[in-house]
């Protein structure tokens, strides 16, 4: 069976048997089949990248691999964990169960953080960036890829996530400008090298309440690390610590910018204001007018 015929047959069988999550808009019938197809052929690509490449003819062994991958996807295994790839801000990254899968919605944070970093490089030779709760390293790596003057210090509580972040650093050839360490928030970065010397702190923290974590779709709850989602009883425990500790590392005029959950924006803005450590606090909305990112500049 030729590739076109096989693709059409799979698509017909697949359409009524799969569901997609709203926070992964890049995943469609077409991109899912093609991503699994390329992975089966030995050329793993993210869903976003897979639709840009033509399908190759598969050997019988590769067809068996394709069927296995599609079956895994029908059983709610995340596509990025099947292919081992996820695209973030146009960058192909390694992805597996050790860390949260980077989401499209987090590109709002990434693009705004990148812009802040570029503004610093207009006035200075380099920009020092911290990526806290780094997960797979996607935010810090995106900044390093698009801002050649950025030096990034990433950290995560999860040893496994840090291992994946380091693999992504090597995968993208950024070992000279990005490093990752294990620690709770800033604990691995507590040194004079960083105190009041950081231009930009970025963070995509866990911000879902513990009660809601248990009710998440099984595609998430049975595969992605709970540590990456659980933000405590109200979902704001880690964000509150971030706001309290960030000023110690930021230089005067430095920024902290982070993602927040739906409905948390106004409360978190008041937390920033109440700290009396920031002179400029801004909220950034998504396409639906919901606050998803907050940035605050140190006095």
In short:
By secondary structure, the protein is α/β, with parallel strands linked by helices. 38% of the residues lie in helices and 19% in strands.
Total of DSSP H or I helical runs spanning 4+ residues = 12
What best-fitting shape do the alpha-carbon axes yield?
A: globular
* Strand adjacency order, main sheet: 5-4-3-6-7-9-8
Mean pLDDT: 95
Structure in words:
It is a single chain. The protein has 12 helices and 9 strands. A 7-stranded mixed β-sheet has the order 5-4-3-6-7-9-8, sandwiched between helices. The radius of gyration is 20 Å and the shape is globular.
Chain-wise SSE layout:
Blueprint: H1 3-14, H2 29-40, H3 47-50, H4 60-74, H5 79-83, E1 85-88, E2 91-94, H6 107-121, E3 127-132, H7 138-146, E4 150-156, H8 159-171, E5 178-182, E6 198-203, H9 210-213, H10 218-221, H11 237-245, E7 250-259, H12 265-275, E8 278-285, E9 291-298
Parallel strand pairs: 3-4, 3-6, 4-5, 6-7
Antiparallel strand pairs: 1-2, 7-9, 8-9
Helix pairs in contact: 1-2, 2-4, 6-7, 11-12
Keywords:
7-stranded mixed beta sheet, two-stranded antiparallel sheet, alpha/beta, 299 residues
């Amino acid at each position: 069976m030729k590739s076109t015929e096989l693709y059409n047959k799979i698509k017909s069988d697949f359409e009524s048997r799969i569901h997609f999550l709203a926070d992964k808009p890049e995943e469609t019938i077409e991109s899912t089949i093609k991503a699994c197809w390329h992975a089966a052929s030995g050329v793993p690509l993210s869903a976003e990248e897979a639709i840009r490449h033509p399908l190759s003819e598969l050997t019988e062994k590769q067809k068996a691999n394709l069927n296995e991958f599609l079956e895994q996807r029908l059983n709610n295994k995340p596509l990025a964990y099947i292919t081992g790839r996820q695209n973030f801000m146009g960058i192909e990254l390694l992805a597996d169960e050790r860390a949260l899968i980077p989401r499209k919605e987090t590109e709002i944070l990434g693009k705004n953080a990148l812009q802040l970093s570029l503004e610093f490089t207009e006035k200075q030779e380099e920009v020092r960036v911290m990526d806290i709760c780094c997960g797979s390293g996607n935010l810090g790596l995106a900044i390093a890829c698009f801002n050649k003057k950025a030096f990034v210090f990433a950290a995560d509580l999860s040893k496994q996530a840090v291992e994946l972040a380091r693999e992504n650093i090597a995968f993208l050839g950024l070992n000279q400008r990005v490093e990752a360490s294990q620690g709770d928030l800033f604990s691995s970065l507590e040194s004079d090298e960083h105190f009041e010397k950081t231009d930009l702190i970025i963070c995509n923290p866990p911000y879902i309440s513990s009660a809601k974590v248990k009710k998440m779709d099984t595609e998430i709850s049975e595969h992605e690390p709970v540590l990456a989602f659980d933000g405590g009883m109200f979902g704001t425990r880690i964000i509150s610590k971030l706001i309290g500790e960030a000023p110690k590392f930021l230089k005067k005029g430095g920024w902290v910018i982070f993602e927040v959950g739906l409905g948390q924006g106004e409360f978190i803005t008041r937390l920033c204001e109440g700290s009396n450590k920031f002179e400029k606090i801004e909220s950034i909305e998504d396409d639906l007018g919901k606050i998803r990112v907050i940035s605050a500049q140190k006095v």
